[in-house]
């Protein structure tokens, strides 16, 4: 399986993950203009922006997720500046404040995110700064805790929620050396964007540590990588297996 990956990258090559950060300029200041009875307004706008973020990037075969809601995160391998600017423009129709964006590619997803963030901060309203675009492979690890849902029968929904966040922190710390950007998907599902050179043996100790199935997808864009990661997870479930399964786009 990984012979194909090495052949695609070339000897000694490191794939670059392209990250885009979208900044809502003046978001905090805007919230303060709404008065004290504002949280329901803020939550409603955040939910709408979240929906449009997912829709816009999914149509471009990318993968996106909100960060703090005043910053939005996307894996955008294969997308060019014009495509990114169009998405920022479209999202602006649902944002109460101007947007800016930064895009950067690096072998380490965490480095790419950090540099993309710097560019988004530098960019003016409705400006997109690009520190390089890339169409290399993306790797996403979809993590599903085993039997966590049934545990609500003897705990509670909130205790399960607390447990999930404790596990997310464990995953975050474990995957940081692999460039891991770890996010909560809801329920008992966690996603982490990692370096595409990761191996099943790298993730097996994590699977055992947190009692989870881990499906990894490696593909040419974020949406396909997520699809493969979920397929890997579904395959483990259907076979009644635990551990890690990596699927690579051919």
Describe it for me?
The chain folds into 2 domains: 17-130, 2-Layer Sandwich (Alpha-Beta Plaits), CATH 3.30.70.1230; 138-248, Reverse transcriptase/Diguanylate cyclase domain (Alpha-Beta Plaits), CATH 3.30.70.270. It has 250 residues and is of the alpha+beta class. A 5-stranded mixed sheet has the order 2-3-1-4-5. The protein has 8 helices and 10 strands.
Strand order of the largest sheet: 2-3-1-4-5
The profile of the biggest β sheet is:
5 strands, mixed
Question: How much of the polypeptide forms β-strand, as a percent range?
Answer: 25-35%
Shape: globular
Give the beta-strand count. 10
* Uncertain residue segments: 1-11
CATH names the topology of the largest domain as: Alpha-Beta Plaits
How far do the termini sit from each other? 10 Å
What is the typical, i.e. mean, pLDDT?
91
Keywords:
250 residues, Alpha-Beta Plaits, 2 domains, five-stranded mixed sheet, 8 helices, 43% helix, disordered N terminus
Compact description:
This protein has 250 residues and is of the alpha+beta class.
